[in-house]
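Entry 14. Structure prediction run on the chain below.
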Amino acid sequence: LKFASVNVDHVVVGPSGVWAMETQANPGFVQERGGSVWVDGPPMGKDPRRQARAGAAAVAELLERETGERWWVEGLVCFPNATVAVSRNLPVPRIVSAEQLLSRLHLAPAPLCPEEQARLVRAIGHAKERMAARRVAELTRSAA
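Output returned:
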């Protein structure tokens, strides 16, 4: 989903809640350390957890507009090409590898029943349709 200020790579809706996912292609060894994300030694210049949190806030706002209710959305960063070390000092890791992703998604910050899951998936689908229609209209106007 593309919002005015942030791009959300993936939105996951399931029994454990709603997740806004940022995907990073960096290979290597990744860890959360000292308030930063480190890749093969030095910290990343731009913290991807910040983008995941901004994406979570944007998805939460979208769901509130679509459903009239406030929903908790969790931000998560996935490094599918890396080895991710889980820090024992953090209560909840915000970065995962592809292998760690499913077990992390099973941690339930806000359990959703099947009806709520279906409702949220429909809301996201309707919002995506409207966003796509707006983009087509904008492109049509700029081409004219």
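The mean pLDDT is 88.
Filed with the rest of this week's runs.
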